[in-house]
What we know:
The chain is an alpha+beta fold. It has five domains: 8-383, FAD/NAD(P)-binding domain (3-Layer(bba) Sandwich), CATH 3.50.50; 429-484, no CATH class; 494-580, 2-Layer Sandwich (Alpha-Beta Plaits), CATH 3.30.70.1400; 583-660, Gyrase A, domain 2, CATH 3.30.1360.120; 673-706 and 713-805, Aminomethyltransferase beta-barrel domains (Elongation Factor Tu (Ef-tu), domain 3, Beta Barrel). Strands 1, 2, 8, 9, 10, 11, 17 and 18 form an eight-stranded mixed β-sheet that branches. It has an eight-stranded mixed β-sheet with strand order 5-6-4-13-14-15-12-16, with helices on both faces. The longest helix is centred in the N-terminal third of the chain and has 21 residues, at 63-83.
Amino acid sequence: MARTLPQHAQTVIIGGGSIGCNTAYHLTKLGMKDVVVLERDQLTSGTTWHAAGLVVAGLLKSEAECEIYTHGRDLYANLEQETGLPTGFRDVGYLQIASNPERVHEMRRLAPFMRRKGINIHEVSPQEAAELFPIGDLSDVHAGFYIPEDGRVNPVDVTMSLAKGARMGGAQIFEGVIVAEILAKNGTATGVKTADGQTITAENVVICGGMWSRQLGAKAGINLPLQAAEHYYLITENVPGLSRDLPVLEDPSTYTYYREEVGGLMLGLFEPGAAPWKLDGIPEDFSFGEIDPDWDRVTPHLEKAYSRVPSTLDIGVRKLFCGPESFTPDLAPLVGETPELRNCFVACGMNSLGILNGAGTGKVLAHWIVDGIPPVDVTGINVNRFTRHEATRAFRRDRGPELLGKMFGQHYHNEGYETARDLKRSVLHDRLAASGAFFVDGHGWEMPDWFAPTPDQAKIENYSWHRQNWFDWHAEEHRAAREDVIIMDMSTMSKFNVEGPSALALMSRLSCNDVDVAVGRLVYTAWVNEQGGFEADLTVTRLAQDKFMVVVGENSHGHTLMHMKRHIQDGEVVVITDLTPAITQINIHGPKARHLMEKVSSADLSNAAFPFMTWQDIDVGYWVIKAFRVTFVGELGWELQVPSYAAVQVYDLLKEAGKEFGLRDAGMQTLNSLRLEKAYRDFGLDVDNTDNPIEAGLGFAVKLDKSGGFIGRDALAAIKGKGVPSTRMLQFLLKDPEPLLYGNELIYLNGQEVGYLQIGGYGHSLGGAVGIGFVELGEPLTSTIVHDGGWQIDVAGTRIDAVASLRPLFDPTMDKIKS
């Protein structure tokens, strides 16, 4: 007999695993009592019950990752005191080992950043590592990195304890209730309908359905790209003398983690070449289920795993377990409000880290629901970052096998995915390949990263944290931009037409800068939320009185589109058209850019006739195209918005005409190095929703007194009203030309740790590595402190002297851009 459900709730959560119970628990902690959790079978019956229960940091590369992890570790360690139910938390410690110099270097780069964020990770010698994990053969280990406070929990116990905590806060949890449909009206979620026909209306619906989330979301038109895969661990029979307090060991060289399990040893695999499971949909009746192990496929990986603990080869096998876990295309969770439905939130796709990250994710989502704004940087986990092709069966089939190995293998700053490639290709792709382009994947786009002298040289010989084989070729591209002229295919840039009677009202409401300018003008601006945190940084170009073009980076495509749509008010008429597939953006930049453009166009391209931050329709060969005089590299030049059907002809014309001016193709590595020399900001990389334009040094683009104001105006006015801020974004240049910067390196002022770099690159024109990052002081961060301070940057444990600046170190007066 069906149980009678409430007819209404403030929030209905679909799914009673780690994520659903964590979200319910944290909502009640924020004072939301009317919460209903609907579990299709029993709590933990999906994948939570067979999780390994690891509570270990791994390598964390962002503030958000650190905050999500530390909140979970601290909560699980203390939850039993609140609820009276055990969690099984045991701080046995966590040891990561490095068996080659590159891995040591990578961990030395990240360990100081993690310590800054409250994670007590420190390096130990090979001998100390062997003493911590005496059961293993660590003879090839170069160094270990140890966190004594990390450990493990019992997944079922911790979920039940969370469920009790949620009930104590007023939540109701119902088992055996299948949600058949998410109800919606006028683009807003209004509740759910169960398989037995009952309806619960709600102000918020939250999908926490684990590996079932994709197919449930699809019924409501919601795009949730995730795919279940086979996930293995082996448990040996009892190992004589094995301590229950054996630390968890992670070894990227064997793609395995090791921990004690009821007197035996657990070997958990994250093997390359994993097997996707149930591509056509997860069975609704799969509960507490296992998958028959594929011994033939997994045996070679087990042999490698055993190589780290050869003493256990003669110990019998108690269990080879195979169960499903769901993974996303980029190994980051799907969190936030869905673009397709207002008031429909999601937290799923945890990539086998549902216990580890469940508490922190539940807290983030709870604040997002209650406060309307997430409390941490969510640019990397926001559900709106994906397009629909990543959820297709073919994409999931091809990308799935690569994902598990990526979780545990050794990582490099420029290493991308090899599967499910060649999806979004510029019409210039073949031309670029013939010019020697090495392509990387960027949000589904094939992007030229750098150019080799010949196509057969366009490969990475060895990945490294030091200079790779392409470094000098990239340097030549960089110098060409500063001395001659470069051509760049920037088709990946997202381009939107925004038009209609209310277009100006929408653009003005969103933009911190004044976009009510003359037709023909471009405006650089930030978009912020009510708290003043970034939602985008972009250009808004006025094409006509009631028509604008918004151009933003490819990493912000979905978020920017969603942000615009969500801020069209009742009664307003605005049409937003995504022009990205229709327009190929070709950038021409460098001191000789005008000479090149004058050779292919009859337009007057002089500084007087075509000033900086304006656009015109000009002829280029046979074609009339929009030319925007704007730059993200700090050089004279134009961004040409070319209809894609004409792009090949325009590119060929420019390449031929540019020979006498030393024209070179340039890729994303050069774009990054050029823009970092100019200290240009990039939303999603350098600044995020927890940062604001005032502290980021973009106050020049914030017009607090503009007519009508803008979203976040009062918050930014309050920040600016405090005077010189104590937190400011600075540019840094290493005085030693040898080290490289990538981001996360700690910043020191007069010996005191004061911040970290958001991103880094090599400034070939400045003669050293450059980076930008926020510095936090307990006093106003004045220009005198910046100029006179003793600055250093920590690179893999070594502090390097640096120059700091509030202004760009390259061409601070913008003479080159405006020439």
